[in-house]
Specification:
Rossmann fold; UDP-glycosyltransferase activity; 2 domains; disordered C terminus; UDP-glycosyltransferases domain-containing protein; four-stranded parallel β-sheet; 9 strands; glycosyltransferase; globular; UDP_glucos_trans; alpha/beta
Length: about 300
């Protein structure tokens, strides 16, 4: 046992925006600590793009896919967070079997939670059970903003949309996750102090009942093999290089985020009227503005890029 390298099993919630940073973390653990890793993915989001990405990883990182689970009993209107949570819960027996097999053949280490977004959102989720008990109505009806340690005040209507309807199963799932996050041995976040200094400082302070939080980002895909040194640089990068430091807003809604055309026009107008330099990663508009289809509809299996 002592002679085996440490092994990390990583459960990847759906979305390339979750898979890529976890894979980058696995690469760092392999390069710096000699660890091996298994990325465990969900069958619902398998695609040619995901398979190609997993096949490109170094030998120290392998992957396994959980078998499909039946979600047909959920309503078509179910939120993406509900779908993902239900899929995770229903896949527990299969996941348990995979982990048992890995335990017999590898030296599994740690029991950490990887949070792929940022420290502000993590703070909100960690405080959600407390807010659930103390806020009697809906967040959107609050007269005063929500104030959390180290965070900018959040007006009630600007709270995450999955938290805006307490009667929705999605909300109950989010409260559940907020409680269970505290069961982890540590929480690793794809962020860094320079971009969120105040909340990073607040989370570094020990808190009874909360695991330590480590900002380990940014974890981005940076393989040198993926870069064609002879190819001309993208025009947007040339433009970015000419801008003053700390003068550009980066706008991106992730691999699953899409907006209807009307909201995209409003966002574009707001950015233009702000007078602020910005770099915007634009996806094709969604008529419904929901991300559910991007993950769980057959259309999501069609890869738009060659």
């Amino acid at each position: 046992e002592a002679g085996r390298p440490p092994h990390v099993a990583m459960l990847v919630t759906p979305g390339m925006g979750h898979l890529i940073p976890l894979a980058e973390l696995a690469k760092r653990l392999a390069a710096r600590h000699g660890a091996t890793a298994t990325l465990i993915t969900f069958a619902s989001t398998a695609s040619a793009t995901q398979r190609a990405f997993l096949a490109s990883l170094p030998p120290a990182i392998t992957s396994l896919s959980l078998p499909p689970v039946d979600l047909s009993d959920l309503p078509p209107s179910a939120a993406i967070e509900t779908l993902m949570s239900e899929e995770c819960a229903r896949a527990v027996p299969a996941l348990t079997a995979i982990l048992s097999g890995l335990k017999n053949t590898t030296r599994l280490v740690a029991r950490c939670l990887f949070f792929p977004t940022n420290l502000h959102v993590l703070t909100l989720i960690l405080h959600l059970p407390e807010l659930d008990a103390s806020v009697p109505g809906e967040f959107r009806d609050l007269a005063e903003p929500v104030r959390l340690p180290g965070c900018v005040p959040i007006p009630g209507p600007d709270i995450l949309s999955p938290l805006q309807d307490k009667s929705d199963p999605c909300y109950r799932w989010m409260v559940h996750h907020g409680r269970r996050y505290r069961d982890a041995e540590a929480i690793l976040v794809n962020s860094f102090d320079a971009v969120e200094p105040d909340v990073a400082r607040a989370l570094r302070a020990p808190e009874p009942g909360r695991p330590p939080v480590y900002a380990i980002g940014p974890l981005i895909k940076t393989d040198a093999a993926d870069v064609d040194t002879d190819a001309p640089r993208e025009a947007c990068l040339e433009w970015l290089d000419r801008q003053p430091p700390r003068s550009v807003i980066f706008v991106s809604f992730g691999s699953g985020g899409s907006l209807p055309a009307e909201q995209m026009r409003e966002l574009a107008l707001g950015l233009e009227l702000s007078g602020q330099r910005f770099l915007w990663v634009v996806r094709s508009p969604s008529d419904e503005g929901a991300v559910n289809a991007n993950y769980y509809d057959a259309e999501s299996k069609r890869d738009p890029l060659p």
